[in-house]
Amino acid sequence: MAPLFGLRWAVPLALLSGLTMWLAFSPVAFGPYAIASVALLTAAAWRSSIRRGLGLGLLSGLVFFLLLLGWMRVVGADAWLLLALYCAGWFALVGGATALVTRLPAAPAWVASVWVLEEALRGRVPWGGFPWGNIAFAQPDTSLLNYAAIGGSPFLSFVVAFIGASLVTGALDYRAGLRRWSAAWFSLAAALILIPALVSPPTDGDDVGGSDSAIIALVQGGTPQFGMGAMDVRRAVLDNHVAQTLDLAVAIDAGRVPRPDFVLWPENSSDIDPFTDPSAADAITSAARAVGVPILVGAVISIPDDPMGVWNVGIVWDPVLGPQEMYIKTHPVPFGEYIPFREFLSERIGRLDRIPRDYRPGDRPGNLDIGGVAVGNVICFEIAYGEVVDAVIDGGARVITVQTNNATYGGTPQPEQQLAIERVRATEFGRSVVVAATSGISAVIAPDSTVVERLDEGEEGWLVQEVPLRGQLTLAARIGHIVELLLCAVALAAVAVAAASAWSTRRRRRAIA
User: Which among 4, 148, 173, 301 would be 20 to 30 A from 331, CA to CA?
Assistant: First the structure.
């Protein structure tokens, strides 16, 4: 079997594939480009050698991730380049596997499964992985998003990739004179695009677990600056959030807005440990007493008996009783919140001194009872990890809160990219998502991914919104992990069958020669 294109055409197609995948994400954010990207890489690697497929996948991945993760340059060019190269390495495997599985009948199913396998591995290996850039996260504004509620975000990625590969297969069958097969592939692709537009995910609250709605306030206090030094003036950040909460209290007392069930502060709203600094504790207590309801405070606190470790936490701060329940972030970010191989790397990369202590992971999901509301809390990048969100849904969360601090990446596409992920999670799990950020973007997201209200980057203020509370589980919440596992198994089986067939064919040719 000969490849579809020679290198003169295959290389530009792979490069264009990476570019179009980037265009599917913010700042352009046109989700259907992901379909075109998969189609281009599939065509470029179609029945090529494994080595060529690996190279084409790497080229596509490099273009995509260098552009997508450009905001990492704030941390450093080396961090940006290494992370992009790591992610592109997984795309190389997509290209190599595509070269193999396109030799099998019904290639679109196997190609799409390979994409799911790539995302599953990249999102877990090593050190918990990095799922940023998954195909599903580019789909919050397309009708295809509804597939996330059926089989989870991995299934949504599968459908998008299946459509892209089907377009290539249909075109090739047409060129080969197989008009019925061509029509079948094109019709299936069209049906997959049109069917979810006929389905509307539920957005009303339900009485599974209590009241069908809650009033939640969020505060975006602002930071003195963006970039790596955004949190250097820690007291100013805390004071900003206290001041905005006091302003919210004035509006509540004046009857301009209803009193919320609780107030959500962002990650790092108190980088001063309120358990060791009485002035920080007093400031938070004064804000809670002013609004008269609990505040979920994002804080960084020291770990008893561990001088080299800290916790990134969300603390339920009661206006009368003070600190109560606490969620410790379970998925700290490697090289952002802790340093693997610290002793070795610190001697060679001086900039790592900015992270003098490692964030230790918690061991329980972020299920909290705040003002009588069953909340599932996640912190910042955790929203990209499906198992973290799935855990709080399993724990009975009826609304998802996200505490985040994107000030480091202010003025880049990163906050919008994260908002897109939060919107996908809302539909996937059928929950309202309330996001509080230090400097933006803070938002209230309905279960159908609609952004009800938001505060943009650089704004300071607060929002008060009644949100539906849902206890019913989407099909994705029930079986999403099983769907992902099955699709990964299908991908591995297809690669194994295609590889065995290719080896057998090569062996026969050598025997004849």
Answer: 148
Can you read off the two tokens belonging to residue 270?
A: 């108190």
Q: 325 catalytic, yes or no?
A: no
Closest CA to 165 of 119, 122, 118, 106: 106
Active site annotation includes 267: yes
Please list, in sequence order, all residues whose beta carbon lies within 8 angstroms of the beta carbon of residue 125, skipping any fewer than 6 positions away: none
Alpha-carbon distance of 257 to 463, in angstroms, equals 9
Closest CA to 301 of 265, 336, 326, 331: 326
Question: Any residues with CB less than 8 A from the CB of 462 and at least 6 apart, and which?
Answer: 217, 218, 219, 220, 244, 245, 247, 248
Locate 145 and state its tokens: 């998003």
Buried b (16+ CB within 10 A) or exposed e, 407-438: bbbbebbbbbbbbbbbbbbbbbbbbbbbbbbb
Q: Active-site residue among 118, 325, 380, 428?
A: 380
CB of 285 closer than 8 Å to CB of 291: no
Nearest to 62 by CA among 96, 5, 16: 16
With contact defined as beta carbons under 8 Å apart, do 135 and 120 qualify?
no
Could you confirm whether 87 is annotated as catalytic?
Answer: no
pLDDT tens digits for range 327-345: 999 998 776 676 666 666 5
Exactly one of 329, 337, 422, 428 is catalytic; name it. Answer: 329
Statement: the pTM of the whole predicted model exceeds 0.90: yes
pLDDT (tens digit, 9 = 90+) per residue, 427-486? Answer: 999 999 999 999 989 999 999 999 999 999 999 999 999 999 999 999 999 999 999 999
CA geometry: angle at 422 spanning 413 and 223, to 5°?
55
Q: How many H helices and E strands in the chain?
A: 13, 13
Closest CA to 356 of 303, 408, 307, 305: 307
Catalytic site residue from 87, 118, 119, 267: 267
Rg (CA), the chain: 24
